[in-house]
Amino acid sequence: MSRLIKVGSCLLTLVGLAACGPIEVRISKKEGVRPISRSFTANINSSNFTCGDTIVGDDGATEYVVTSSRVTGGCQFVFDQEVEVLNEKDYDSIKEFKGAFKYANRVEIELQKLDFYDETGDRFQVETRIRDVEFWVNGEQVLNRDQIGNLPATITIQGEGLKAIKDAIKNRRRCTARVQAKVTVLEENRPTSIRCDVEAQPTIVLSSAEI
Predict the structure, then answer these.
(1) Is 56 exposed, middle or buried (0-12, 13-18, 19+ CB in 10 A)?
(2) How far is it, in rounded angstroms, from Cα 179 to Cα 149?
(3) Helix and strand tally (H, E) in the chain?
(4) How far out from the chain centre does Cα 37 lie?
(5) Among candidates 152, 160, 62, which has minimal Cα distance to 115?
(6) Which of 28, 33, 29, 79 is nearest to 176 (CA)?
(7) pLDDT (tens digit, 9 = 90+) per residue, 23-44?
(8) Which of 19, 49, 62, 130 is the most buried (most CB within 10 A)?
(9) What are φ and ψ of residue 14, in 5° steps?
(10) In this structure, what DSSP letter does residue 151 have?
């Protein structure tokens, strides 16, 4: 086969691929998408603490809020923080953002760890100390108590949570995700301190066309 025919065949292949739909590329930690790695602590050993109070914590870098509320069978604690996934400089430094890949069509999050510990450092056993567990990203619940034993797991963000990320990337703005870890501790086993450790890695699927 001549060189001209080979080149022609390659061009036809590229045209065929383009005709099948937009081209996609995945970017994750290796390319510069920040992991979600946080440790939150709620100290509840104060004699003045009542389930329903709000606790403000500090992890040394940023403040976070832990709210509590009384629910059937226990007290629910919600660990809440906004985390940065991309900032404005990343659009210049991540090569995949240059050229044709202007849109984010999907976001996948590999949730690697979601654990809760008491004041002694002992990890909560779901069967004996926890009534319920939930993990939320941008207002969308992505994990429940029954699924926590199957980590790591990859979740695809959808709905309004995805829309916020897509809009930020389309307009090359700082991109954040609001993460919430919710745990309901059985009243009879309530500790004096709760630490929540979260580890997750977002993967953004960029595309040459907006869907």
Answers:
(1) exposed
(2) 19
(3) 4, 11
(4) 9
(5) 152
(6) 33
(7) 889 999 999 999 988 888 888 7
(8) 130
(9) -65, -40
(10) -
> 96: which residues sit within 8 A by CB, 6+ positions away?
25, 27, 31, 206
Mean pLDDT of 182-208: 87
Residue type at position 129: R
Residue 4 has pLDDT above 60, yes or no: no
Longest dimension (CA), the chain: 85
Distance CA 33, CA 170 (A): 16
Q: What global pTM score does this model have?
A: 0.78
Per-residue tokens: 159: 């709905």
Q: Is the dihedral of CA 171, 160, 204, 195 positive or negative?
A: positive
The residue type at 13 = T
What kind and span of H or E run contains 16? Answer: helix 3-20
C-beta atoms surrounding 5 within 10 Å: 9
Give the start-end residues of each E strand in the chain: 24-27, 36-43, 54-58, 63-71, 74-86, 103-117, 130-137, 140-143, 153-157, 175-186, 193-207
Cα end-to-end distance, the chain, whole Å: 39
Distance of CA 17 to the CA centre of its chain: 32
